[in-house]
Amino acid sequence: MLGLKYSITWFGPTSKSPTSKLQRPKVQGPTYICPPNFHISVNIFARSLRRWYRSIPRDEFGRLLWGKYLRRLLFKCILWFFGSTIGLTLLYAVLPIPITPLMIQRFWQQAWDKEREVRLRHDWVSFREISPHLQLAVVCAEDQDFLEHEGFDFEAIEKAYKYNKNHKRKRGASTISQQTAKNVFLWPSRSWLRKGFEVYFTFLIETVWSKERIMTAYLNSIEFGDGIYGAEAAARYFFGKSAKELNRQESALLASVLPNPLIYKVENPSAGVRQRKQWVLSQMRMWGGKIDYDEPNTPKKSEK
Strands 121-122 and 228-229: what pairing? Predict the structure, then answer.
């Protein structure tokens, strides 16, 4: 009925058998071949399942207390989340960041797109090995209150909110700290869940890291082109020099493509990119051509 074949072997008396006692035929079922060590895996799974089942709390009558169990599980998950994220933040405060979720996602996209070259160029360098011109250029282009705020520019957020209510093309208000939190710890997407995690990680890095460390992580993880991550890789790829050797013009050009480096190109800048580059250069002159982390020299500070 189930489409299985059975064979019956007769073990009863034959003409040559001296006994006349009848024996029932032995039914042999289908033969299954299990993969090697399959029974070991099953036993391990069974033991784990029993151990988990016994860990569920019970009352005096032996009934399972699922509510109490779920509360304990939720508490453990919360402890694990805060412990792992705070630990990772402390670790990245002193150690190089080897790879980010954005790098993994871009690499996966390149692998499945025949028109894109599969590459991942990323070379971590220290704060002292990054040109001060590039540090100032990205501050002028992306977040001119970087030295003043504690991770969030609420004035820019309010302006973006009012603008986005009346325009289809949305305007962002993410600070360098927020972008660093997103690039280092999170996946690239537009969702309230990701935004919530971004706020949390921004608070963490602003609490644990210095402004110099945030800038170092930002300029070592930011995307400057398709498969090009960080200042050192960008300087080597586009200009054939180290990140420390970048001049004002090159730094302003790199900062000008940051809104979307997959559309705006360093190697073949559009008229819009060249115009933005000139604007960044003018802002750098307003800053006096340098950025001071110890005594913030933000031009807006004297105007407020």
Answer: parallel
Q: Which two tokens stand for residue 211?
A: 């402004």
Domain ranges (residues) in the chain: 55-92, 93-303
Instruction: Tell me the H-state helices in 143-295.
Output: 154-166, 176-185, 192-208, 211-221, 231-234, 248-256, 271-286
Token pair, residue 159, equals 């302006």
Other beta carbons within 10 Å of 114: 6
Give the pLDDT mean for 98-106.
Answer: 91
Question: Residue 48: enclosing H or E segment and its boundaries?
Answer: helix 38-55
Which residues have a Cβ under 8 Å from the Cβ of 225 and sit 6 or more positions away?
234, 237, 238, 257, 261, 262, 265, 266, 267
Task: Work out whether the CA dihedral 226, 232, 235, 241 comes out positive or negative.
Answer: negative
Which position has the token pair 């003043």?
148
In three-state secondary structure terms, 7 is strand
pLDDT at 192: 85
Over residues 53-64, the pLDDT tens digits come to 788 888 888 888
Q: Structure tokens of 253?
A: 């050009």
Amino acid at 256: S
Q: How far apart are CA 229 and CA 89, in angstroms?
A: 20
Task: Please check whether residue 196 is in contact with residue 203, taking contact to mean a CB–CB distance below 8 angstroms.
Answer: no
- Look up tokens 């398709």; give the residue: 226
How is residue 170 written in tokens? 């949305």
Structure tokens at 46: 């069974």
Mean pLDDT for 16-33 is 55
Indicate the fold that domain 93-303 takes in CATH. Answer: Penicillin binding protein transpeptidase fold (1.10.3810)
Contact between 219 and 135 (Cβ < 8 Å): yes
